[in-house]
């Protein structure tokens, strides 16, 4: 009887030990997951805090903004800063200019990059690799290094102080990245889909329009987000190419809140920054829904 009891206790202890072994990796995974979550929270707070402080300052009156003691919430919230920003005579004009230039740049950049990416990923022709390397090299160059050559070229062509010229400059800035991004989406599409379409008698344009283009919708949407944000936030080209104040865009309008004579209106500038960021947020929220739909459709068709 004692032998049976001893064997039973031994087996129970062994089972306990074997059952305890898997818990150690689980604990380690949980610890790693906890550390990763904590680090992600820290980075999120560091990234979100400037945006929060911008919105917080936008609702503060000027005496509260200039106080030496920071307040993490407005003591006397006001919309005066937003009213001052909106009622400026140049706001609506600069907003209209930004919309015209940015929408034109995004449409042209997407159209050109879509066909260029399709050609570089699907067709085999002499010089294809050289073109890809040159596109990558142009993308690696800093924009300020190209500012003077672009200014001289656009000046000779008579494209300065025009929406078309500025849109063309924005297209040139975002086109290399857009081509490389869309090329990656085209490469992931199985070649068998095109071969099956060719067997059914479909030509090149029909394959592009009915098969390839619908499957790269997620890439088109993600590229449009990058192009929109890059063109919307651009300041140097707009300030350099546009000579008249009536042709300025919103990034230049933000600078008008700082003056060597009157100083900087921090409340008005933060309110203007909030207004400046709203179109980007709205554009992303609208595009995000289509991005999910496009990814689902592409997965089903693929």
From TrEMBL:
InterPro entries: BP-dep_ABC_trans_perm (IPR050901), MetI-like (IPR000515), MetI-like_sf (IPR035906). The chain crosses the membrane at residues 34-55, 99-120, 132-152, 164-186, 207-232, 266-287. Residues 95-287 form the ABC transmembrane type-1 domain. Its main location: membrane. The keyword Hydrolase does not apply. Residues 1-22 have a biased composition (Low complexity). Pfam families: BPD_transp_1. Keywords: Cell membrane, Membrane, Transmembrane, Transmembrane helix, Transport. It is a multi-pass membrane protein. Residues 1-31 are annotated as: Disordered. This is Carbohydrate ABC transporter permease. It comes from Microbacterium rhizosphaerae.
